[in-house]
Design brief:
- It is built from 19 helices and ten strands.
- By secondary structure, it is α/β, with parallel strands linked by helices.
- Strands 1, 2, 3, 4, 5, 6, 7 and 8 form an eight-stranded mixed beta sheet that branches.
- Helix 7 (140-158) runs antiparallel to helix 15.
- The radius of gyration is 47 Å and the shape is elongated.
Amino acid sequence: MIQNSNKKNSDDDILDKIHSFVEEGYSNREACRKVAENSSMNVETVISRWKRSQKPKEKSHGHMLLSDEKERQLTGVIEAFSLHHNPLSKNSILELVRKTENLVYNWRGESWYRGFLDRHKEYFSERKVKSLRGKRIGEEIVDNCERFIEILPKYLKDEKISWKNLVNVDETILSIEKGVFSQVYVETRDKSRSSKQSLKRGNTLTMMPFITTEGKVLMSVYIISSKREDNQVEMNLKKLGRSSRKSWPRFYAFTESGMMIADLWKEIMLVFQREMDMKTPGVSYAVLQDRLGCHTNAENVMEMKKIGIHTVLLPANTLHFLQSLDSFPFANFKNALTSESRKNLNAAWISKKSILDLMLEIAPQVEEEAFQPSTLISAFRETGIFPFDPEKIRANAKLNSGQAEQPQEKPHKNYIEEMSKILEDYSSKPSEKVSIKVKRNEVFTPDALYELHEEKKEAKKKEEEAKKERKRAREEKKREKEEEKRGKKRKKTRERMESKQKKEKEAQRKIANKCKGCGKLYRSGSKWFGCEECDMYWICANCHYTSEILQQHEENCQK
């Protein structure tokens, strides 16, 4: 039997007691009366709580803006947009809620937004996003990754290259001005407007590190945009400072654009081979890199293979989730570079240094802080490259192509699927203006790259021959048309002359049909006399017998 209690009971306790009495055979009202008696509560209060518990609960808390069902709908919509690579911003979400709930136009929703993210932090997080071209999120990247998963371990095994000698290399452009001037400074109240003198930007600076699966940095290269007065660009690598046991060799070079070019890439790879040969003689390395044009030069690739540097290309359009350097290291490096540059900004301004000079001074020091072994190892693990994890690569590929499967336990899974279907239907509408031709690119190894190069060479040769043949055919056809045109012209000229001659003869015939003596018109019959020489001079019988004009004409014709 339930004992009396002077302690105030919670709604859950009261409801449990009512259920207990109901199970003993009491009606709902009698059970409420019993609970009120045993808890010293008003009967009407207990009945009110019981009735309230029977109503469907729409909100987890009475002060919530949206019901639980609407929050699940909103969560599904937000997650669907994110999975289809078109995430919603804070303002977009607030505007969506304001319109659907008919809130006042000046509703800001700051506290609601923070609370919403906190309630659903297991599903969402605020991040900076990177814009991607449409082809980098297409379904074909899944097939490209499958081919890569098949080729990479097989190639390393065939060439007897250890996984610890798998190297990732990539370029990144360094810029610190935006991060430096976005912070808040202390200004005097005497100034009417806040301002800060900018440093001279300087030229473009590109940084390129070589990292291994063991978390080591083998070397790094800085490419500076600079043109000499004699219009000659210095592309020879030069060593930047001294390297020690704790650090790694650093080099720099100049190009006109400050970007990588084919000749410089070859020079860098030769220097990399020389540096590695001094540390580990006779060891081959596989260099994992993107498909930049200078990286895929077949002649350079095969030349590098002969000296133990094997080029392995990442699948097309997968760098944003398969390039290890793009995972954590570059972000850490740029954040540290911006942080360190803030500390030295005023000193650089006083000494009249440009941003380029400041970066060149700070960047080598920041490298060791940003490229920690744990960071590099985590980057390889995150991308699934090492330890080699095909399932992680497949999952990342599907996630970035919009094919990721949703866990069954998500309460808003149905809304994600419904919104995803709407987005897919909308994005699959054919365009009348854009024509996209998808071509699978399965070239990953030096040999395959060289084969592709030879195929392209042969195809180019055939195309040139076909082009010459088409040109010869066009010229032949042109000659035939010109000859036909000339023939038609000659024919028209001939027909025109013949017509003219015919008309002249007809005119002469009309003249000849008249008697040259009396002018009588010849119709038919005999007794007409003509010149046997020209057959154009005729006279009638009367004129023949009365004059000698025909005889005189014949004498002139004979002459």
